Amino acid sequence: MNRRNFIKNVGTTSVAVATLPSVIDGFTVKALAGGDAMGRLLEDSDRVFVIIQLTGGNDGLNTVIPADNDIYYNNRPKLAIAKNKALPLTDTLRLHPSLSGFKKLYDEGQLAIVQGVTYPNPDRSHFRGTDIWLTATDASVFGSTGWVGRYLDILAPSFPTELPEHPLAVQVGGTQSLGFAGSKGSMGITFRDPDEFARLVSTGGGIEEVPAADLGDTKAAAEVEFVRNVARSADVYAKVVKTAADAAPTSTVTYPNSDIAAKLRVVAQLIAGGLQSKVFLVSWENSSFDTHANQVVGSDPLTGAHANLLSDLGGAVEAFMADMKNSGNAGRVAGMTFSEFGRRVAENGSLGTDHGTAAPLFVFGENVLGSVIGADPDLETLDNRGDLLMNYDFRDIYASVLLQWFAQPSTVVNNILYHDFSKTAVPLFKGASTVLEGAAAGSTIQFRSVSPNPASDVVTVRVHMNLIADATVVVHSMHGKKMLSAEVNPVSGVAQFNVSGLSTGNYILGLYSGGAVTHSLLSVQR
Fold it and tell me: What pTM, to 2 d.p., does this model score?
């Protein structure tokens, strides 16, 4: 008798078993654990983060187009998107015309585009590159846990001995992501459809037919208990997921007819129905973005596989955010895209592009500091293989999510990411208070108002601090350069500065006090 046979005996539940948290020998699952720590786990913050994986390596240069750069057009005589066909972002950048959904979010200030994201010594292998992004390790390190899993490890230190009532993380479709792997197994669950998940669990029977007590103190008895524990946790989560899906109001949003849109529809349904999971992950289930050939059709760069994928992506995210707004959840939901690498600067001979390095990354949500962050792609200064150099390490973005969205202290974030990326985190979220190492206990600050905004001369900033402390407002360019600063009056909580010397555009306001920092967005217009 062995584990494989026992899992086989579980019947159709084995499909769910393969996607559930690993309950290892020696740990007993408490299906609806009521301990204080677990009870507080999902009450401390109701923020949700959605990750969209662009599997295969997205062509960043045809996604966010350097439309005023002749080098781009010279290297892509057949693939380049004409400036007058693309969607305007800045004076020098355009979006692929298929990303009208992203353009709408950008115009509404709900989309940040972070330029040139990769990591030192990038690996151009799909498998290795994906592992590096999911584990958040250096290129020379082979990690066995994921960055999301390590974050959830900290939130649920008793997992899996005690399970929260709701799953910590959910992946819709696909096999369990390495990103969810924690120190004691997977911290998330995977399923394609809530109804199917519940049906598979409810019809899976068979484990109670093998009496573990009759097997004595043997390995077989431990295997029976292993399967029973997994099945019990499956039963708990299947019911919770099904209850949330059934509780969701009927959506009035029309989603595109695509795989990724269908998955985001499920995520929206579960959030609207009250599922308290922290992180959701969706992805294309094959290397769809691996556009070595036929990236475009014939001589028309606006058609083909890449255009279709970007249309699916932009339309799905636009519909998802509209759904979140309708259900009253838009303010507590944010998300990002990632792909294991970008593509080469030059097109190849097969109407496609080959594996490259840096590429843009998108962050979306109502509380995102919507703008283009980072310098335009430098197509002259390339690495020794002719690929783009890094503007931002992808772990700078992860640090931003953990610090600013989930409000984790910098010491915790640095432990999760193995290095001090708190210092290089990119300002991405409005009103997100980050507590830095050495901060005074209870340090929190927030912007009350920034007016006028847009501004042309004097700006008045009003802030709230729960400690009597010095505070400073700093104006940064979108590339991170310090432009202006002003001290906050400790009595009135007001700071003023004059932006008449700044160029038209968007700027990031940083509010610093007592070891805490929060950010907002300021537009300057003439």
Answer: 0.82
